[in-house]
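User: structure tokens for this one?
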Amino acid sequence: MANTKRQLFIKRRLRVRNKLRRVNAGRMRLSVHRSSKNISVQLIDDVAGKTIASASTLEKDLGMVGKNNIEAATKVGATIAERAKKAGVEEAYFDRGGFLYHGKVKALADAAREGGLKL
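Assistant:
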């Protein structure tokens, strides 16, 4: 029986997350979720099980910029880097989930790096 698109996404997400947990123990996780309209990111402390900082295009000041979602993702990446620095976090590992490192996800990661967050 063929896997559905959702089942394949979940398998890919778990594969990425498990690999990152083995390789980057002890660092914070920068977890990305995107939909067709919005993108959100959280800085998570897996040891304590708490979210340290978050940013999303659902926030008023970070909303969509025209029809170009890559610009909005760039703003979200810069914002999460700024909020992470305020929280005292210098480095994290980038958890793209089941999403391809391409387009909005890549723009967010690059903006977070430019903002001073070491990914």
